[in-house]
User: What shape does this take?
Amino acid sequence: MAEIALGVSEKHLPGLAAYRRQIWERRLLHALVLFLVFLIMFPFLWLVIMSFKSDPDILAWPPKLFFKPTLENYTGLWDDEFPRSFLNSVITSVGSTVISMVLGVPGAYALSRAARRGGSNAMSLFILATRMAPPIAFTIPYFLVYRNLGLLDTRLGLIIIYLTINLSLVIWVMRTFFDAIPRSMEEAAWIDGASLWQGFTKIVLPMSGPGLAATAILCFLYAWNDFFFALILTRTDAMTAPVAVVNFLDYQGWQWGKIASGGVMVMLPVLVFSLAVRKFLVHGLTAGAVKG
Assistant: This one.
């Protein structure tokens, strides 16, 4: 019996060793993922912690891990021009995103359905080429034109800037989703008496919902996080939140508390919005990657 038991144990020993090796490899992989997540999130966590510190605690060395939290940095933001800048960011980001989607989605649908006629690929490449040049290449022309039209330091001027940049993104991304939708479904709706517009709004758009959500999020993020154009083309009236945060670095000194709290306020809406629609974002970014 001992020989039989020994034989069974020896027989199963390679499989048991492989199973234990898989467990350790899985634990090592989880530990590596947690380390990478912590490494990525550490600057954001440090920014949040710093926003609740007073100036002496922020400048203390070595850094204080235990301190008395304060809300002075956040209350100080609302006593400054930051609320108006925050509102400017909301208006320009939402406005440019809505207009980009309204104009770009039908354009993407037209290019997708005109693919069989030829010429649509060249048109799509021409549209995408507008995003290939660096933003600084357009700065002087935009500044001169805006000065003559009276659009400097206006919300409308920023919305037009973000519209011209996001429109190509909407057309290029949404065309991929429309290419993946079978044309036969629209033709069946046309046979039943639906018009071209009804087939587009009642058949194509509902099926491309994740793509619409993902594209809108990308447009919103670009407009919300923009710093370069907002810095060059605005002064006070249309100043956005990212520029307002940088203005806390003045000749009187660096207001680290307001910089940290302002950074958190700029980051918070994007974080909340992304978490709320994360399912649409992930599904939308992956669904359009494969056609057929």
The first strand starts at residue 249 and ends at 250. Strands lie at 249-250, 253-254. Residues 72-287 form a domain with the MetI-like fold fold (CATH 1.10.3720.10). The chain has a mean pLDDT of 80.
